[in-house]
Amino acid sequence: MQPQDIGVQYSRWNDSSRDEVSVNTSTAEVSGSKRIYTKLCTGKIGIAVKVIGGNILFWTVFVIGYVTGYYVHKCK
């Protein structure tokens, strides 16, 4: 197993009146799914992906409803 370079340090008794929490992470060990999420779900690309996904979902539901309604209300 590889050693992890992730550490959390909490320092409450500092000279300042605020508590401090520092998190150290290694950028070399970022998972593939996290990179894909960051790329596709944030920023301008994220907005475009959500708009395109919403349109696909809308038209899918619309077509399913249209076909279902056609067969339900079809005159015999």
Automatic annotation (TrEMBL):
Entry annotated with the keyword Membrane: yes
Coiled-coil region list: none
The keyword Lyase appears for this protein: no
Molecular function GO terms recorded: protein homodimerization activity
Residues spanning the membrane: 56-73
Keywords: Membrane, Transmembrane, Transmembrane helix
Taxonomic superkingdom: Eukaryota
GO CC terms in record: cell surface; plasma membrane
Cited InterPro entries: SMIM1
PANTHER family: SMALL INTEGRAL MEMBRANE PROTEIN 1 (PTHR38503:SF1)
Protein name: Small integral membrane protein 1 (Vel blood group)
Source organism phylogeny: Eukaryota, Metazoa, Chordata, Craniata, Vertebrata
